[in-house]
Fold these 3 entries.
Entry 1:
Amino acid sequence: MPTATRPAAPFEPVRLEDVAREAGVSTATVDRVLNGRAGVRERTAQKVHAAAQRLAYRPDPAAARLARARPWRLVFVLPEGSNSFVALLRAELEALAPWLAERRARAQVVLADEFSPMAAAQAIGALAGEADAVVLMCQDHPLVRHAVEALAAAGTTVVTLVSDVATPARAHFVGIDNVAAGRTAGTLVGRFVVPPRRGKARVGIVLGSRWLRDHAERLFGFQQVIAAEHPHIELVDPLEGRDRSELTEPLVRGLLEREPELAGLYSIGAGNRGIAAALKATQAAGRVVWVCHELTAHARLALLEGTAAAVINQSAAREVRAACRMALAQLTRERLLPDDGRIRIEVFLKDNLP
Amino acid sequence: MPTATRPAAPFEPVRLEDVAREAGVSTATVDRVLNGRAGVRERTAQKVHAAAQRLAYRPDPAAARLARARPWRLVFVLPEGSNSFVALLRAELEALAPWLAERRARAQVVLADEFSPMAAAQAIGALAGEADAVVLMCQDHPLVRHAVEALAAAGTTVVTLVSDVATPARAHFVGIDNVAAGRTAGTLVGRFVVPPRRGKARVGIVLGSRWLRDHAERLFGFQQVIAAEHPHIELVDPLEGRDRSELTEPLVRGLLEREPELAGLYSIGAGNRGIAAALKATQAAGRVVWVCHELTAHARLALLEGTAAAVINQSAAREVRAACRMALAQLTRERLLPDDGRIRIEVFLKDNLP
DNA sequence: TTGAAAGCGCTAACAG
DNA sequence: CTGTTAGCGCTTTCAA
């Protein structure tokens, strides 16, 4: 059997073996180095890295996946409570199981009290060695940041979701620009509210808490646009509803009593069921231009009924998928699609519901 | 133990070999049958199919990809001409090359005259045996439909893009619901146009041609919403601009001369550069509520300048990617993510530009 | 028309 | 610390 000379392919792929030869070591060693497994002399590791670099080596994800025995363990750390949006995230993650399995991965959820950074930090710390990648949705706080850095230092990939934790230790942030989301709401409310004959139209704001970073950012963007571009509108002082319908409902009822002429309402956080109830009970539904966030079942219904004028959304489905893709891509060094990580600020009217 | 009733183990993976054993043939034969390669007796094929079905076999895409020698050949058939949107599609496809290569696939573009179904049908026919999958963007016409059916019968996967071709022979349609897109435009224009003190506000419409299915659908949705929900608006007769700026510009200039009080404008097709120019030249920019489609560079600029109030978009990037994913999933029988094929109707204001 | 067997490029035991 | 080697599940010759 004569040895066939491989015809020079247009894109001669570089394999692990090529790197091994170039570095003068075995493929096992290259594997160890490139995958950060322990037990390689520093000097050897450097040679390997250099060789890989020189040859522009890219691992073949298909081969890696095929050979891999244990599944990748992804852990999602999410806020506990009955928040519809978090429920959506979880449902989507569940639906992803078969897709993940096909990629030798599986995901697990851990809940942590959203308002206790201490609890979150503890939950994160407990994950070292238990997870290959951690996807985190929680408040940015020094304790949390520290836990993330420790986890990353231990070799775990960390991806932040929805609300970023500002440390270079996290590999990616999957979520939207909340200032831009607030500005978008501002433009919608500003243009939907018809300028009154005289005086100004009054518009209310409900948020969960000023201390939640994303809420504060949305508020900022909203106020900015209204002030700069919609002089016919005057904003009422923001109300804090703790993201809970039991609280937002009376809050909005009170607001409507004080402001019978209210022309618009922007709700920044959760608790939309309560707001819809208040608007309907006071006959304000439809008359008040109401814009809110997150296309949950309640919001969808409000849109269809005409209670809500528009819903600004970050797709829970896309976010979960993007987070999984980012985490896996990081773990396998697989190529990412150009903007697979970018989440759009979606605007839904009753007409373009998905 | 002859007939083994396999208890559904947690994740007992079924392999090609299991199917082979169950069917009493070799793995090579199973491969031939399941991948539609020639040279297998009908009776054998049936046994194999039955066995695969019984065991709920799903091929491991990683293994398939690793073993596969030849790349999958995807061919995109797109309308020729200088349309910005088509240019975006092409650019995106180019950017996808490395990603495709990693999946043992590569894509190629063939251009066909959009207004000649005959030419399109010919181009499609020529692809039999040349492509594993064809992604098609062209007018629905009996000739085209016939060509698609012939191609599919020859074993090629066909995916339609942007504008559907109504035949069960195509595996998927990747695109948006254009009636809903038109309705969305209707709601935006209806709410953005301030109701006049007396009389009605007049709103113009520019489309490419009534004979383009997607344009006709958008027009329908738009008229529907305006008529039903925005009685303060009166629509001017639609103008046809053939999707070309040289034609749309004078058309809109003329319109503004005849209708100096024009309050809104909906442009359904391409040629937005011309429309923007006309609006700016006549000082109508910003005063006229202009809503258009497709976030091209021109449209983006118009939004930022305030000439356009909103842009309704179908993401070219997502469409190309979705089309590739659908085609490859079909080819490899790989699992698709729940709604990887669904393209959203995106609404962009100056504030939520990606 | 069918089967046997050699890889695809990587991972992971197991030796050394 | 490093190398050898046996697979992972599929595709693809080559023989029968």
Entry 2:
Amino acid sequence: MSSPAPIAIVWFRDDLRLSDHPALSQAAQSGAALLCLYVQDESARPLGGASRWWLAQSLRSLAADLASRGATLVLRRGPAAGIVAEIARDTGAASVSWNDVATAPGRAVADELAARLADLGIAAQCCQGDLLAAPSTVRGKEGRGLKVFTPFWNRVLARGDPPLPLPAPKAFGAAPRIASDTLADWRLEPTRPDWAGGLRAHWQAGEAAAQRSLQQFLDGAVAGYAGDRDRPDRAGTSRLSPHLRFGEISSRQLWHAARFAAAERPAIAADVDKFLSELGWREFCRHLLFDNPDLATRNLQPAFDRFPWTTDPGALRAWQQGRTGYPLVDAGMRELWQTGAMHNRVRMVAASFLVKHLLLDWRCGEAWFWDTLVDADPASNPANWQWVAGCGADAAPYFRVFNPVLQGEKFDPEGDYVRRFIPEIAGLSTKLIHQPWTATPLELAGVTLGDSYPQPIVDHRVARQRALAAYATVRNN
DNA sequence: TTTTGAGTTGTTCGA
DNA sequence: GTCGAACAACTCAAA
């Protein structure tokens, strides 16, 4: 007569995968019976609509992957530290393992859980797995994180390759079943109205889909990535961001796969370096969040606390709905609404437009992106909005005001991207597609500006001057 | 400690 | 049409 195997709880968070999951691997190797748990913690920043949709798909996929190994994914809702500790106590678990995902409330919750487990005498295993380099290993003066990207990234690169990714555990014992919510209980997906059709058409969540996206990228778009990533009219990006956001694939896996590809094909070495530096930006943002838990609400540069933002609900709505009259901006905002994503180049132009042309607080834009992006990330989203607004770390200089017409002509030269998302002006010539207001009535060919497509809500030249004047008030003197 | 050079992604203007 | 300079000053990182 043998005693039953001890129970090990694996607490999943933004790491919804089985491969390269240090907490899972460690628990599986211990020979314990695993209890896999995901907690929806509503005391954290509530997920946006698009993220909720993605999370539902991703949890469904993870649950299926676990089921194929004989395990179940237990779903619970509530304050995470309390819930996990309670389950650990009630099941008599020997240990709780999790990965140290660096999200703002996530860290405090993990610290609280560790304290509760210590009180209960249950072993806590916090594993490194989310980052290429832990924040504690990249420090500047007085132990602070670095604030400029290039030295930051050079330091990370100088550390050499991160650890090799772990394989998914082949088999592990499953703990006896305990009560679980169902995904339907959580109402993560829209029903009436069901607005998720565009998301379903463009995305597939889950670890297997993430691995397929990576393979597709390395077989295709990686060649030429350094230049094509800036072209919204081409399929030049990796499309990995939402997978990375929910941890369906890890940055270490991407690092090693890309490096391996570059070793096999020297011609793409520069493209791979560029791709890795994009991973570097994700890393940089996470380190920033580590040092600034209120990144989404507080200006990193305090001088911006006195910036003269305006309040204009009509302008905000026009921006959200893609009705600013600037085709590149509007195409981006409609791409976002329809597909849950927006091309990186267009994100910068659209964000710059909100902040500099409309003088609306960057937090308004951050909140909209948070709600509508499937890759809305607690670190990258606020950090990049602060970068655009000029109040962030290593921020864009105040005088960089994107001209939406020039950006369109440069990065969408045939207008293909604009025509895809703004069908009402698709008939305009390439010469006019980025500035329809300059067309003669004959050239407009049936489009009535101000009716089927709006007039520009601000004049670029006027708005630029106004922005420069507003930014002058923030100068330190 | 002090100094020095640099800082993701631009635009406009005038020669 | 092309090209270089101006657009500010400041903070950061490293020598």
Entry 3:
Amino acid sequence: MGQMNLSTRQLRAFLALAELRSFTRAANRCHLSQPAFSALVRSLEEALGARLFDRDTRNVELTAEGRLLEEPARRLVADFEGLVADMGDRVARRKGRVSVAALPSLAAGWLPGLFAEFRRTNPGVDLALHDTLSDQCLDLVRAGRADFALAATGPESPEWTTEVLCRDRFHLVCRRDHPLATKAALRVKDLAGYPFVHFSRASSVRQHLEAALHPQQMATVLEVEHLTTVMGMVEEGVGITVVPGLTLFEFERGSLVHRPFNLAGLTRTIYLVRRADRSLSIAARSLYELMIERKPVSRRN
Amino acid sequence: MGQMNLSTRQLRAFLALAELRSFTRAANRCHLSQPAFSALVRSLEEALGARLFDRDTRNVELTAEGRLLEEPARRLVADFEGLVADMGDRVARRKGRVSVAALPSLAAGWLPGLFAEFRRTNPGVDLALHDTLSDQCLDLVRAGRADFALAATGPESPEWTTEVLCRDRFHLVCRRDHPLATKAALRVKDLAGYPFVHFSRASSVRQHLEAALHPQQMATVLEVEHLTTVMGMVEEGVGITVVPGLTLFEFERGSLVHRPFNLAGLTRTIYLVRRADRSLSIAARSLYELMIERKPVSRRN
DNA sequence: CACACTTACGATATTCGTAAGGATT
DNA sequence: AATCCTTACGAATATCGTAAGTGTG
């Protein structure tokens, strides 16, 4: 008794008949032969245990119970259709939400153009971006607050599914009048002698750099958070710095020079990281795939 | 595309799987074999065009789209079940409403006991009673404000379906000390000489009486609306009166006498009248049938 | 290898459309 | 006679359960 099966077709048939008051016309609207339609209405009446229409050969009218059913049925069908339409919108990416957690270096340079392209293609999909360091990016994904992350660490764990997005070479940035700006063969150990403007200790750039320079140490004069701050400091000659290729857009000014390192250790890998136990939402997968398609290219010069 | 068919079984399967996170257990809950259940879930995913569960051999989890569907689906199924349950209540007469339009003479004497019996059997069904004269009874039914009427006229029209409920003989009512109280053969024309307390001109009693007496006229001293008033007047000796047998309960007191007329013309017929173009609601039919079963019996003495 | 979901497949039920039936105007 | 709903019935479709397949711990 409790396991009643009702279909939207039955309710739609009911509503069509209630409106048109004719089996023949209602059957047409439902794209059914008239006898099949008749059977469908009968099946609904039997399922509910109540006659819903008074019909003879000339007239079709709702019974008292039918009239009672009309409004709830209409609402129910509308809800159903709304639900299906909503899902259809998501599948068609006319609707949805993607939340990405990404390193600030990507967030500032590469992501804006990519987000813009995504928005042009999928104007109905909301985008959210958390620009924070790798570990916090992963925390956000783990907590379900971000769909996936762009991070500099590719955690090897059954918890995660990772994919390499690109590799990003480190570049020296200094004033045009700095000795290193013109030095023939640029090597890591050359950095040791000059005042250096660092990113925070947690940043991937700094960790790679210290590892490559070990056991030498750099002459750190400043430790800042923001890319723009670094740029200002270097431009004023406070020190030199090293940044990933993907952030070079910030340093394209006449007074500054940037030069790549060729050492393999001075390369970071950017990973796309997502939870292994969850698939991406349709919208998220769409953005994810666009990222792979539009991989950032680390500058060679 | 717009003609999507979804069934409650699909939604129930979805909800069971979302809750139990196991095809096997959810299939059990739905009383299906596990492969049949699997196919049911797949059919829903195909209908919506979106994968709703991430499943491998070990784990079953909702996808982002599945999580979005969960709450609306739960609500929708609950609404469905509410609707079916409500209809079931009406079919079982645990719920509903009947509105009857009846002549005051029936409303006061016969209906109370009948309504009481109906309420005992169907405590959930609301009852409404309009006690008014025949023509207004029919108006109420025509307007849909009453399900059927108990009237003294059986209109012959395709608009109405009528059924005889009972016949009701008229009785003379007078004081025990009145000459007519003991007169051997009681005839209609005997009424002409005595002061008479009448019902309103629209009442069925009066119409029958005047027709039977024609061309003689009665010595009307008063014209009142309510049965109780008539009783008081007659008891005080203001006049005599004639009432239908079904109202005699009001005149059962030591000081009064009532005597039936044997003339066929001094009989009224009580009809059950309902709209021909509408069936009765389940609750209304139930009361209607109870009325036929418990037909009032017009007193013979 | 045990467990859990999927695929394969034959049997059963349901649903369909065409055609005939019945009632009403 | 025309119209409209119902019934009848064979055909197409869907759904079921059993059994075999597949992947994972």
